[in-house]
């Protein structure tokens, strides 16, 4: 896959928060990042999903790809209703 460069200034709030800069009023810099929209990603089912989607993961056989697809589907089925 190719990556497309996108200047930080065009990434908006994501860029501002990823830099972990200290701002006197973060709500002016990142108005959509409010506590009511926060989703905790440090839970076992989310961590398992990230592990399954690891781009460095290698497969010894095609059936392993199908098995991973089934696992990802199961994890997403458990995550989405909670949102």
Structure notes:
The chain is mostly helical. The chain folds into two domains: 8-37, no CATH class; 44-82. 49% of the residues lie in helices and 0% in strands. It has helices at 8-11, 13-18, 26-29, 44-52, 62-79. Helix 4 (44-52) runs antiparallel to helix 5. It is flat and about 50 Å long. The two termini are 30 Å apart.
Give the % helix: 40-55%
Write down the overall mean pLDDT. 83
Domains (count): 2
Distance between the termini: 30 Å
Question: Strand share of the residues?
Answer: under 5%
* Major pleated sheet: none
Radius of gyration: 17 Å
Query: What class, by secondary structure content?
Result: mainly alpha
Order of helices and strands: HHHHH
In terms of per-residue confidence, which ranges show pLDDT below 50 for 5 or more consecutive residues?
none
Number of E-type strands: 0
Number of helices: 5
Please tell me what the overall shape is.
flat
Gist?
With 83 residues, the chain is an all-alpha fold. 49% of the residues lie in helices and 0% in strands.
List the topology elements:
Elements: H1 8-11, H2 13-18, H3 26-29, H4 44-52, H5 62-79
Helix pairs in contact: 4-5
